[in-house]
């Protein structure tokens, strides 16, 4: 059997690994942590809904057969010519590679944004956000400077809106524990586009605005950030927002290793693949998840979502095995389950299998989607143990 290496243990990498594991096929998976974190729930960790460890599943708890090898290392490059993955702990050769290193924040060239904002890029950075906010609120109790109580989120897409919902649940509790009047807190989300949540049906968006406004949050659309300096957001038109916490959730792009390693990439840095998830630059490399530039039948790139990443990862693994067995590979035709956006722990909004959904049903559907993912990843072993991993049901 050829040597298969997977880089990245996110949604795409873990689904590829789980597929190979189930088939008893040997492979090596390289990741910068020994756990798989649930990226789509990182806003919960940032908002303090649960302890950080609840969002991390030890990789070896999913891949328990001795046919798999886990290498904990930072991937630093892909040498296509020599079929080698370069890592912080040495080179790893491959016959087939599944590349699924995910995404990094996209700052759109806004001056100072990267330097002076926090972002949710992994579990550590999500926990860091919560600690930073806790610390700012503590500082307020010492010096009374109200800037410590101002939180500005940049970007009103899925991540920004979900994070805002968590903070609107968490901050009143934090205020209570520190005897800070809730009215003094300023939580605002700043979005350059004229609307929030473009992936959610237009008629459901007012529900989000209403829910957040009632809880004391502010949503500002059509408001462009020009520059960020330490503790200050400079908006188009000259207005400034001074805030002790600035968090950027406004965009993602693929990990730059792809362009640095000579793959054909789009403007978001994703590497072009054919319908089989095979790199157009090298037939033994399969690219899955947010790193892949895959197009639907109308030539539109698939959006960077966890559900696409999961299906791409599983297909990449399957197609490698089909190719090895000299059988035709299968094209990518993903199933669209819909988009669900949590607005805190109790309420959600979005669609499930084409049906619009909002309120408590939205939150329940989101909880259901967590169980479904755990089931797909590790069957009853993970889903049955769901109280250990982020389940409230
Ligand atoms: C807060 C938040 C909420 C979201 N909500 C949703 C949602 O509700 N629904 C949805 O469909 N999508 C959602 N998304 C998007 C979704 O999380 C991504 O589309 C998905 O994680 C992409 O999967 P992936 O496998 O490509 O990358 P990832 O899941 O990011 O995995 C990449 C893996 O590679 C590792 N890695 C990265 N660089 C290196 C390196 N150099 N060396 C070694 N390892 C490395 C990372 O640690 C990680 O384990 C959300 C994203 C965020 C941040």
From TrEMBL:
<protein>
    <submittedName>
        <fullName>NADH dehydrogenase</fullName>
    </submittedName>
</protein>
<dbReference type="InterPro" id="IPR036188">
    <property type="entry name" value="FAD/NAD-bd_sf"/>
</dbReference>
<dbReference type="InterPro" id="IPR051169">
    <property type="entry name" value="NADH-Q_oxidoreductase"/>
</dbReference>
<dbReference type="Pfam" id="PF07992">
    <property type="entry name" value="Pyr_redox_2"/>
</dbReference>
<keyword id="KW-0274">FAD</keyword>
<comment type="similarity">
    <text>Belongs to the NADH dehydrogenase family.</text>
</comment>
<dbReference type="InterPro" id="IPR023753">
    <property type="entry name" value="FAD/NAD-binding_dom"/>
</dbReference>
<dbReference type="GO" id="GO:0019646">
    <property type="term" value="P:aerobic electron transport chain"/>
</dbReference>
<keyword id="KW-0285">Flavoprotein</keyword>
<feature type="domain" description="FAD/NAD(P)-binding">
    <location>
        <begin position="3"/>
        <end position="313"/>
    </location>
</feature>
<keyword id="KW-0560">Oxidoreductase</keyword>
<dbReference type="GO" id="GO:0003955">
    <property type="term" value="F:NAD(P)H dehydrogenase (quinone) activity"/>
</dbReference>
């Amino acid at each position: 059997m050829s040597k298969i290496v997977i880089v990245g243990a996110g949604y795409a990498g873990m689904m590829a690994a789980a597929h190979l594991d189930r088939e008893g096929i040997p492979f090596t998976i390289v990741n910068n942590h020994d756990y798989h974190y649930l990226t789509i729930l990182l806003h919960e960790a940032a908002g303090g809904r649960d302890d950080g460890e609840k969002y991390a599943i030890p990789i070896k708890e999913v891949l328990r057969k001795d046919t798999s090898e886990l290498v904990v290392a930072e991937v630093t490059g892909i040498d296509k010519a020599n079929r080698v993955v370069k890592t912080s702990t040495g080179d790893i050769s491959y016959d087939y590679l599944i590349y699924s290193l995910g995404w990094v924040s996209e700052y759109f060239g806004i001056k100072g944004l990267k330097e002076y904002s926090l972002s949710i890029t992994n579990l550590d950075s999500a926990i860091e956000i919560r600690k930073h906010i806790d610390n700012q609120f503590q500082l307020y109790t010492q010096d009374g400077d109200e800037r410590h109580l101002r939180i500005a989120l940049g970007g009103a897409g899925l991540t920004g809106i979900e994070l805002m919902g968590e903070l609107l649940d968490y901050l009143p509790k934090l205020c209570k524990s520190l005897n800070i009047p809730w009215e003094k807190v300023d939580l605002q989300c700043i979005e350059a586009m004229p609307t929030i949540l473009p992936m959610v049906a237009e008629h459901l968006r007012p529900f989000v605005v209403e829910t957040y406004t009632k809880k004391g949050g502010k949503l500002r659309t059509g408001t462009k950030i020009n520059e960020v300096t330490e503790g200050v957001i400079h908006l188009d038109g000259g207005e400034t927002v001074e805030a002790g916490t600035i968090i950027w959730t406004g965009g993602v792009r693929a990990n730059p290793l792809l362009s640095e390693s000579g793959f054909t990439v789009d403007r978001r840095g994703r590497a072009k693949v054919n319908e089989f998830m095979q790199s157009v630059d090298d037939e033994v490399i399969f690219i899955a998840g947010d790193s892949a530039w895959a197009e639907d039948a109308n030539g539109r790139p698939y959006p960077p979502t966890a559900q696409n990443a999961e299906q791409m990862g599983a297909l990449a693994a399957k197609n490698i095995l089909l190719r090895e067995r000299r059988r035709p590979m299968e094209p990518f035709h993903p199933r669209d389950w819909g988009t669900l956006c949590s607005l805190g722990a109790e309420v959600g909004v979005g669609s499930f299998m084409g049906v619009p959904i909002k309120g408590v049903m939205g939150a329940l559907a989101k909880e259901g989607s967590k169980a479904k993912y755990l089931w797909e990843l590790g069957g009853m072993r993970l889903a049955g143990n769901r109280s250990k991993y982020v389940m409230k049901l």
